């Protein structure tokens, strides 16, 4: 195995530490404590684990954590009323409505109801539009979706000179694939976006210096698709059964095969996931800085 393993846990720990220091500095300057409000509708076990982890991360960074739990039968108007209250609450710097929402609730309407300045998920159409209009190298002075933001920060560490490189994003989702394309363009990559109708994906992949796999299919990207020395970022989190009645998490990339060819690769778990959560803390800090009228610098 030749590839460098990009350690998402270590990078996330470093980022969370820098966010915590920045939170302390913000408060020492007289600004109010940043606060993250999470909203979970229903009792999905996986979402519950994610939301709890986000609250813990916020508290560890010195932020207030407001945990709102609503029953699965909550109406859309009741959820919108809660979002309106959080929008108006000065103690709340950032709002995260955990997805997926129950089917009777219109997700698009709920995400659009969040104040764009508190939209720490970067899912509001105003923030999606800002990202789409971003010039190469322009500052990210608005919230950007946490997963692609985390991937960008990981790439900046793993491959500092991205300009001119061929990047392939596999997956065109609004939450990951599309914002990822915008961030890679901002970094001056030549970007291709592939999806389920793409012809000859292996051939496209073999040309790519950077591969970001976000398709949700276990071990879909094979080792012989990878250009020698390429940087491979695996966004997939797929639970698969293993012998003995157990299950384990695997990514969208066949890790062992790809690691034998790639220059650097993220593992699953311990790759993109921890950086996504750390970026939520970063987005909350930046929202609090903006609300306090404090200069928003990279951390
Ligand atoms: N559910 C799974 N991932 C996410 C995320 O990044 N944000 C929100 N709001 N819900 C999610």
Please indicate the percent range of residues in DSSP E strands (runs of 2 or more): 15-25%
CATH second-level architecture of the largest domain: 3-Layer(aba) Sandwich
Question: In CATH, what is the class of the largest domain?
Answer: Alpha Beta
Q: Which spans have pLDDT < 50 for at least 5 consecutive residues? A: none
CATH superfamily of the largest domain: NAD(P)-binding Rossmann-like Domain
Bound molecules: guanine
| SS element count, helices | 10
Q: If you consult CATH, what is the topology of the largest domain?
A: Rossmann fold
Alpha-carbon distance between the termini? Answer: 33 Å
Structural notes for this entry:
The chain is an alpha/beta fold. It has two domains: 85 residues, Rossmann fold (3-Layer(aba) Sandwich); 127 residues, 3-Layer(aba) Sandwich (Rossmann fold), CATH 3.40.50.720. It has ten helices and eleven strands. The strands form three sheets. It has a six-stranded parallel β-sheet with strand order 1-11-8-7-5-6. A hairpin with a 3-residue loop joins strand 9 and strand 10. Helix 2 packs across helix 10. The mean pLDDT is 97. Bound molecules: guanine. The site of guanine has 6 residues, from strand 4.
Brief digest:
With 299 residues, this protein is α/β, with parallel strands linked by helices. It is built from ten helices and eleven strands.
SSE topology:
Elements (H helix, E strand, L loop, with lengths): L3 E2 L2 H21 L6 E7 L3 H16 L3 E7 L5 H13 L5 E4 L9 H7 L11 H8 L13 H13 L7 E5 L6 H10 L3 E5 L6 H6 L3 E4 L17 E4 L3 E5 L3 E5 L4 H5 L4 E2 L6 H20 L8
Parallel strand pairs: 1-11, 2-3, 2-4, 5-6, 5-7, 7-8, 8-11
Antiparallel strand pairs: 9-10
């Amino acid at each position: 195995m030749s590839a460098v393993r990009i350690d998402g846990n270590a990078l996330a720990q470093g980022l969370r530490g820098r966010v915590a220091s920045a939170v302390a500095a913000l408060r020492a300057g007289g600004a109010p404590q940043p606060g993250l409000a999470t909203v979970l509708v229903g009792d999905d076990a996986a979402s519950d684990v994610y939301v709890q982890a986000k609250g813990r991360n916020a508290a560890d960074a010195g932020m207030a954590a407001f945990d709102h739990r609503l029953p699965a039968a909550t109406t859309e108007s009741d959820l919108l009323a809660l979002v309106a209250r959080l929008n108006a609450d000065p103690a709340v710097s950032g709002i995260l409505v955990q997805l997926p929402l129950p089917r009777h609730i219109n997700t698009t309407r709920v995400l659009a109801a969040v104040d764009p300045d508190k939209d720490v998920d970067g899912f509001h159409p105003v923030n999606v539009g800002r990202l789409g209009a971003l010039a190469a190298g322009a500052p990210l002075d608005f919230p950007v979706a946490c997963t692609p933001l985390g991937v960008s920060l990981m790439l900046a560490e793993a491959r500092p000179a991205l300009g001119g490189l061929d990047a392939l994003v596999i997956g065109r989702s609004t939450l990951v694939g599309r914002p990822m394309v915008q961030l890679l363009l901002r970094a001056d990559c030549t970007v291709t976006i592939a999806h389920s109708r793409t012809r000859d994906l292996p051939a496209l992949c073999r040309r790519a210096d950077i591969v970001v796999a976000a398709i949700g299919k276990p071990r879909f990207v094979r080792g012989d698709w990878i250009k020698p020395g390429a940087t491979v970022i695996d966004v997939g989190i797929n639970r698969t059964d293993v012998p003995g009645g157990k299950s384990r998490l695997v990514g969208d990339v066949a890790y062992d095969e790809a690691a034998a060819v790639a220059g650097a690769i993220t593992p699953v778990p311990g790759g993109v996931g921890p950086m996504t959560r750390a970026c939520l803390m970063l987005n909350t800090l930046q929202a609090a800085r903006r609300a306090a009228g404090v200069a928003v610098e990279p951390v």
